[in-house]
Amino acid sequence: MKKRTKYVFITGGVVSSLGKGITSASLALLLKSRGYNVFMQKLDPYLNIDPGTMSPYQHGEVFVTDDGTEADLDLGHYERFAGVTCSKASNYTSGKIYSAVLQRERQGGYLGGTVQVIPHITNEIKSAIRSAAGPDVDIVLCEIGGVSGDIESLPFLEAARQFRFEEGPNNTCFVHLTLVPYLRAAGELKTKPSQQSVAVLRSIGIIPDILVCRTEMPIPQEHRDKLALFCNVRKERVIEELDITTSVYAIPKALSEQHLDEEVLKQLDLKMKPIKHTAWDELVRRATKPKTECTIALVGKYVAIKDAYKSVHEAFQHAGMASYAKVKVKFIEAEDLEKSTRSLQGVDGILVPGGFGSRGVNGKCVAIRYARENKIPFLGICLGMQCTVIEFARNVLKWKDANSTEFDPKTTHPVIDLMEEQKKITDKGGTMRLGAYPCKLTKGSAAAKAYGTTEISERHRHRYELSYDSESCKALEKAGLKVVGLSPDKKLVEVVELPNHPYFVACQFHPEFKSRPTLPHPLFDNLVRAALKYKQEREQKKAKPSGKGKAKKTSAK
Ligand code: GLN
Question: What is the DSSP secondary structure assignment for residue 519, as one 8-state letter?
């Protein structure tokens, strides 16, 4: 007989940016380590159908799943921490929920009835939550976006309340993440904001079972007692989540030491297997005590937004840990490189990530030329690969106006052009080439060596391409830019690279989405290894008396 799926709801209180995604992902890892099959889901209160049309300034990175869902970046945490595979059932927005209900209304699905938030929207939310409970899923972890008290998250919270009523207290668990601020002037931790945010939840019928308290100071017992009393939570269920400065990958163990996973399993009436933290302890050790370091420039256009390149940043950390190295990511605004390349001096590697729109494209080409000519390890991703092609066409083939038709529809050298199947599409949301596609690599190429295979599958999010059949592709190849990865029908170029360069690889897909802390992505891993080698060789040259004067000049500091 199939076991009954149990549900954990994670809500947030007091302020946003408390790290609800990482806390949820850490809990999922712990439950998985205890032997349970977990599915993760994020409910977002905004009205966009998905974040795919939002600017990184609004939303940070758009994460892409294997099945081609453009999703909230928290899904990245879920996949990285818990090793789960997310899908379209992993992310619902209010927009997606309302759209389904309104479509059904137009089709006569509610003929004769008045369509209302309760029960129609809440029913749709509940069926979205139930859609996460596949046959093998023991526990669904459902993170509700926003902060308690927000008007727009009310239907989600109401659906969760009904869920508990329907499924029963031992099949549901409410975890509320809150902030216990430290007031420096008073020299005290304050519990009132948490009391108030729980009071808001209780006013809508949700009584949290477990309180997870973000704090910069350890919470003394008397404060825990107070929180338990006022928030109606058992004392042992006031869990401290102390700020961690070492590595985010230390968070799961810290939460387990506070018994978060045990309390969740007790609430759900589930048995507990002992847990081993060894692999993650080793990660934290490597992250906190690196043996070496390198600096890699990330040349993008949303560099002021911390979350815009979240998965790329994490992929660097994973690759760094694999090499016992600290990877310092130097964010460089692409447009600034149009004036000077000074900021690139002294870096050990360069990465140009994905992006949209013409701003910054010329600066990205400057960075790529710098990497190509100075033999600095380089990885280009999506727009980064398209810019690699544009740069090569402009500066090696001397096609001065070479461009993508995304940026210059009238260029005489459209080296990157809209994909054929995109030409008839007018809608902007969810219409790119999205999700996992297979790719065949050339044997012996740097990419194939990195992967250790020639058959790969990677995630995509783009409309434009380098067509393998095009005249420009033949000219690029002849001039030395090698096509080493193709779609199985041999139409679309997926990877290009330069031979006679320590590491110069550019791919149309997004490798960063598949990197894991314990399994770094091969293209990032090899970029970091090449950067460490480049740094070592540069330092050796510097140490030689003959090279001294010159080396000083080019040194970054
Ligand atoms: N703007 C480019 C395209 O749509 C690249 C997209 C990306 O980098 N994700 O093809």
Answer: B
Per-residue confidence at 196, pLDDT binned at 50, 70, 90?
very high
Can you spell out the DSSP letters for 67-132? T--EE-THHHHHHHHH-----GGGEEEHHHHHHHHHHHHHTTTTTTSPP-IIIIIHHHHHHHHHTT
Q: Which atom of ligand 1 is nearest to the CA of 416?
A: 10
| pLDDT at 277 (0 to 100) | 80
What's the CA gap between 167 and 7, in Å, rounded? 9
- Report the pocket of ligand 1 as residue ranges, CB < 6 Å: 354-356, 382-383, 386, 406, 461-464
Tell me: the pLDDT tens digits for 227-281? 999 999 999 999 999 999 888 999 999 999 999 999 999 999 999 889 888 889 9
**Burial per residue of 158-190, b for 16 or more beta-carbon CB atoms within 10 angstroms, e otherwise:** bbbbbbbeebeeebbbbbbbbbbbeeeeeeebe
- The highest-confidence range among 136-145, 303-312, 548-557, by mean pLDDT, is 136-145
The SS3 assignment for 539 reads: helix
In eight-state DSSP terms, residue 153 is T
The partner residues of 239 in beta bridges, in order of sequence, read: 212
* Level-2 CATH architecture, domain 291-541: 3-Layer(aba) Sandwich (3.40)
Q: Which atom of ligand 1 is nearest to the CA of 465?
A: 10
| pTM value surpassing 0.90 | yes
Q: What is the pLDDT of residue 557?
A: 37
**What residue ranges do the domains of the chain occupy?**
6-282, 291-541
Using a 10 angstrom Cβ sphere, with 0-12 exposed, 13-18 middle and 19 or more buried, the burial of residue 235 is exposed
Distance 254 CA to ligand 1 centre (A): 39
**Single-letter code of the amino acid located at 421:** E
**Domain 291-541 in the same topology as domain 6-282:** yes
Pocket test for ligand 1, best of 53, 301, 383, 416 (most atoms within 8 A of CB): 383
CB 92 within 8 A of CB 122: no
Q: Is 335 helix (H, G, I), strand (E, B) or coil?
A: helix
Please check whether the domain covering 6-282 is classified as CATH 3.40.50.300. yes
Cα 451 versus chain centre, distance: 21
